[in-house]
Design brief:
About 40% of the residues lie in helices and about 10% in strands. By secondary structure, it is of the alpha+beta class. It has a two-stranded antiparallel ribbon with strand order 1-2. It has one domain. It has five helices and four strands; from the N terminus they run ααβββαβαα. It is globular, with a radius of gyration of 13 Å. The chain binds zinc ion. The site of zinc ion (ZN) has 7 residues, from helix 4.
């Protein structure tokens, strides 16, 4: 993983320091790690989480790219754990986009 991507991953995580699925969707349920164990994403284990790309067509530096990504646990990103493949991420694209758009306004003030 390149230094730039790694830095972007940190920026995306640092925005809320938690899985953003539970912010966007209060009914998203608990988070799960790569191995299907329930997890509370934190600064201690953030590298096990994943960025999800939401196509909003922002271009440019990290400040801009931040607005095209949300940070998710593997459970909400890829459906690990008891959800058995149900991918919260792909079924909540519209909600992700709307939430990111509200952040974008804040970032450009
Ligand atoms: Zn999660």
């Amino acid at each position: 993983m390149s230094k730039e991507i790694e830095a972007l991953r940190w920026d995306v995580f640092a925005r809320n320091r938690r899985c953003e699925a539970e912010i966007i969707d209060p009914t998203a349920g608990p988070c799960y790690d790569n191995w299907g164990d329930q997890v509370v994403p934190s600064k201690a284990n953030w590298k096990n989480g994943e960025m999800d790309y939401v196509r909003l067509e922002h271009h440019g530096d990290r400040h801009e790219l931040l607005n095209d990504h949300i940070w998710l646990c593997p459970g909400h990103h890829r459906g690990t754990g008891p959800s058995a493949g149900y991918q919260w991420a792909t079924s909540h694209r519209r909600e992700q986009r709307e939430w990111l758009e509200t952040l974008y306004v804040d970032l450009t003030r």
